[in-house]
Write a structure and sequence with these properties.
The protein is globular, with a radius of gyration of 30 Å. It contains 13 helices and no strands. It is mostly helical and 384 residues long.
Length: 384
Amino acid sequence: MAKYEVDDMELKWKTCLRAGVTAGLLFLAIHYWTAFTGLAGVALGAAKPLLWGCAIAYVVNIPMQFLERHVAPKCKKEAAKKMCRPICMLLAFLCIFLIAVLIVQMIVPELIGCLQILLEELPGVLDNIVVWMEDNLQISAFLSAENNMFQGSETDWQETFTKVINILLNGLGGVMGAATSIISSVFSTVVTLTVGLVFAIYLLVGKERLGGQFRRLFVRYLPEKMTKKFYYVVDVLDQSFHSFIVGQCTEAVILGLLCMGGMLLLRLPYAAMIGCLVGFTALIPIAGAYIGAIVGAFMIFTISPVKAIIFIAFLVALQQLEGNLIYPRVVGSSIGLPGVWVLAAVTVGGGVIGVGGMLLGVPLAAAVYQLLKNDMNASGTRSK
């Protein structure tokens, strides 16, 4: 009896201690929230190359694992086994690079050509607007009255010249500042991606060794129950992100091919380029394809407004087919997340982080949904 009382008192003491520590941490977080967010921002900024490296390594690891599963069993000699991983990693990077180059080659030249056509047609459009305004009696009378008003007023040319010079100097300073900011941003991005790429290569080369080191670290300093829960959560997150990336890429390819095929049947211009663009932007869930559609409709509009309207109607019908048939079976079934939660994850993620949040929101929501579902199923099984 005394033993049970001691255990009960110890349990109450631990519970009170945990509650006190939690309340203290919550108070410190609220009281020093500004300093905490500033410190977190500095830490994230410093760790940005490493975070990019982890993201690159995770994406490249998907085709790399596929290649290793099919190439490694065929490597019988010891020297071939040692070269298997570097070759598979190189092939995975090469595949992703070639896909990116293909997308750029298909989109950028057509987009530049469209802008050139627009710039060539712009003077004619402006001339037509001027002719229309001259033919319109009310607008012509208004412009004549304004012109007479300016002609009748005296102008201080020295003051006007001074104002023009000041505007030009201020504009030049703004342009120089913007150019400096752009150059600095580009240089910082290049350095960040370079460091991230090097870090990703190190992660991919020694992924088993690093995984074993982290596992020994957790086993050594954390309780066994907590370690099991941690690796369970990591496994669910890995499964959600892996399924989302594979499913989203598959869905984007299907949508791009359907868009290109439909445009070819309807004899719409820029079929290959717009199909590729719609497929690429479809990597962003829900709203991605509409982004590509807006650019595509604008390009077709420079050639024929009627064909642009036909394209918009076609893409709306294609999006209905994609949303009701393709996406639920290709992506929804792979991540196990209902459609309403996909929409909520995209909306919240996009509002918090932007495009990156729209990409990360769906797999994170799928992981949370799966964890809650498994926990509720386990609770129901225990209650029975």
